[in-house]
Amino acid sequence: MASSSSNLEEDESLKGCEFYVQKHNIQQILKECIVNLCIAKPDRPMKFLREHFEKLEKPTTTASKREYVLQGI
């Protein structure tokens, strides 16, 4: 019985993880990041990745800024 309870907890945890990844569009963001990395082939890939994600965090358009304001960020 303990194993079925453990399996249920694992299933729920996995579903929660899948929901989180979908909600935040993580799979597409990572895919685009890896494609950009492979195209650029930088000598310092970690620096490239850090800068890539820093750019994603910054609102680049007025619409993006408006979303941040509306969300209270």
From TrEMBL:
Please report the stretch or stretches of sequence annotated as the RIIa domain: 24-61
Matching entries from SUPFAM superfamilies are given as: Dimerization-anchoring domain of cAMP-dependent PK regulatory subunit
Q: Name one Pfam family in it.
A: RIIa
Instruction: Enumerate the InterPro entries for this protein.
Output: cAMP_dep_PK_reg_su_I/II_a/b, RIbeta_DD
Q: What is this protein called?
A: cAMP-dependent protein kinase type I-beta regulatory subunit
Q: Which organism is it from?
A: Acipenser ruthenus
